[in-house]
Structures are given as C-alpha cells and as structure tokens.
Amino acid sequence: MQLSVIILNYNVRYFLEQCVLSVESALNTIDGEIIVVDNNSSDASCVMIKERFPNVKLIENKENIGFPKGNNIGVSQAKGEYICILNPDTVVGEDTFTKVLAFAEKQKNFGIVGVKLIDGTGNFLPESKRGIPTPFVAFTKIIGLYKLFPKAFGKYYAQHLSENETGKVAILVGAFMLMKRELYNEIGGFDENCFMYSDDIDLSYMVLKKGKLNYYFHETSVIHYKGESTIKDGMYMKRFQEAMHFFYKKHFRGFLLFSVFMKIGVVFFSLVKRFQGKLIPKSLADNYILISEDEILMKKLKKQLCKPVKRQDISQPFLKSTASEIIFDQNYLDFKTIIETLEVNKNKGFPFKIRPKGANFMIGSNSSFDRGEVVIFFDF
Fold it and tell me: How far apart are CA 181 and CA 258, in angstroms?
C-alpha cells in the first residue's frame, strides 16, 4: 500500500465528513487507506463515519488522549509506505496526494513535506512553512520585525520562499504532514509528553536532527479552516503555554534567559490567539449565489435561508460585493475546482460555503481566525 491518511477527530463531525469525502476522492487512483482516530467525540462523529464511510478504518478512543498519542495510535494501524497526518478541518483537492507523492519520490534524504494551506476565504496561511523558532527568530516574530523587514527577519515563516515557491524549510504544520511511515516510527512519532500545539514543531525538528530534509510544496492547495478544531478558551491558553514550554525545555534547555523570555512571549501569543478567535462574526449575507445546476436545491435554499438565492455558472466572474455569499454545490463541482475558485476570488468581500456531495449541510468560514460555520439543511 502506498499511502495511509490519518485523521484525528474531536467533536468536528461536519468538518470531518467533508474532509473524508475529499480524501476519498483524492485516493481514487492511489493504493491507500483512510484511518480516522476519534478522541471520544460526543457529536455523533463515529456514527457518521460508520454509516457514510464504511470502508474507513475507525478507531474509537474512550477519552481525549491528545493530538500526539491519538496520531501515534493511528499510525500504528497504518499499512502505507507513506503516511499523511491530516486535520479534520481540511479539504484536499482530487490531485493533492498524487502530486505530493510524486514530489516526495524524487527527493533524496526526504523527511516531511507540507503543502500550501489556505483559509476558508482563499487566503494563504503563513504557517504552511516555518523556520526553527530559535531565541532570536522567536523574538523577531513577537515584536513584528518579520513584517517590517521580511528579508532580514523572515525566518519564522520561512520567508526565503514565497507562498508560490517550492523549497526546503525547517518546520511544517500538523494540519498536513506527509512522510514515510518508517521514518515516523524511527523517530518515535509525535512526542506524547506534549498534549498538543508544539507537537508538529517537535516532529519536524526531530526529522531534521536525523539528517533528513523537510519541504514546502506549493503546487497543490489545501483548505484549512484552522480554528475549527480548537476552541480558544482558558484551557487552550494553558495547553498552548505548556506546549511551548515543552519544546524549549526539550531542545533549548541550557538557555536560561531564553526560558524567561519565552514564558513572557507565550503568554502574549496565547492572549492574542484567544482574542483573534473571537474577532470575526458569522456571515450576515443579504443574498446568496449558488454555483450549481440544481434548480431544486436553489428553491430549497431560498426556503431555508429566507433570503434571495440565484444560480450562477462557475465560468461567470463574481462581482465584488460585501452582501453576497457564495455557495459551492459539490455535487456539481469537484474539490479542486472549488479550492482554485476560492484562491482566484480571495479578498473580494465574499464569504464562501461548500455543500459537500450528498450532505444535508453547508460549511465554511470567513477568515483564518474564524472557527467556521455549519448550516444544517432541513427537509433535504
């Protein structure tokens, strides 16, 4: 088997359904498998997987055991030569794995490869590629020097590469990490002493210490709704601080002043992240544009949303507006086309939603800080 896709889920049932649907399509021409590890969700995630995706291997944990241990359990059941750690709040294109695997096969001393991640509005997520957060690099990030002087101080977000340039990087984000299963097991997988948040930094760093090379691959884009798997509350702040302390204690133990500095920095970052998670309101669209050929769906949406809904072909340009929301019918469009359309129309004032194939809901988010929004359809 060539590829095992590991998806760790916790209470994001609708995002998980869309994610698995996209992964199934992307594995259509690949000898692969999907393994969903559920950390004791209470939102019927497991029931949905069993009913809609009977070929998916489902592992049901009896408690929330965290990101590292959950993924390690999934990998322990994997059979693929390669594994892909994938967040449930992501959407991959139909050719994503084909492209990434072809790239990986060509590399020498291959470690991990990540992809171009975009948020639910089509905008690039800079954490798709990062540098090692050494004391000085972390300092430039905290005080914003990387924004003012990206060439001199852009190491935190690996700004030696543009978002549209493939190349070597140090750190990749756990939303999408593809590597050989043998290497994952060789370094011991994710460190289970870290509950979450710095685990991807640590794994990337451990791969580098093995003499392997990590890559950012820009030729495929993956939607990452980002905040959906994480509620930014007091527990989030506590775990974020613990995670960063874990990484610096493990890899920069002898740097006493840096330890003090990072404690201050982590508090600052966690406060900012918590604030960001509450900034963006839900969409208040006055009307909707449905990208579909389904006349019946349009009529049902009008009744459901109690607002005007008009159909439009994907080939027609979207006129800039702050009052319209775009709904993509995935019965009519493939995921790759939807992702490409998001990128082309980013920053035009449109919120976007996707109605996954065969689903009774639509889903999306309005920014990289928004936790996402699910609209359940009635009488569908």
Answer: 34
Q: Using 50, 70 and 90 to split pLDDT, how confident is the model at 293?
A: very high
Pairing of β 57-60 and β 110-118: unpaired
With H, G, I as helix, E, B as strand and everything else as coil, classify residue 198.
Answer: coil
Say how many residues make up the chain: 380
Kindly give, in sequence order, each residue whose CB lies less than 8 Å from that of residue 188, ignoring residues fewer than 6 positions away: 206
Are 182 and 112 within 8 A, CB to CB?
no
Distance CA 321, CA 108 (A): 48
Q: How far is CA 121 from CA 94, 178, 209, 330, 364, in A?
A: 19, 24, 36, 17, 8
Give the whole-angstrom CA distance, residue 171 versus residue 207: 10
**Neighbour count for residue 261 (Cβ, 10 Å):** 16
- pLDDT tens, residue by residue, 209-259: 999 999 999 999 999 997 544 454 556 556 656 666 677 677 776 555 555
| 111 residue type, one letter | G
pLDDT per residue as tens digits for the range 54-81: 999 999 999 999 999 999 999 999 999 9
Lowest-confidence region among 130-134, 278-282, 346-350:
278-282
- Extract the tokens encoding 275: 């604030």
Work out the number of other CB atoms within 10 angstroms of the CB of residue 130.
25
Single-letter code of the amino acid located at 307: K
Helix/strand/coil for 186: helix
What is the pTM for the complete model shown?
0.89
- Separation CA 60–CA 51 (nearest Å): 15
d(CA 368, CA 304): 27
**Pick from 68, 24, 73, 15: nearest CA to 45:** 15
Other C-beta atoms lying within 10 Å of the C-beta of residue 182 = 10
- 176 alpha carbon, distance to own chain's centre: 6
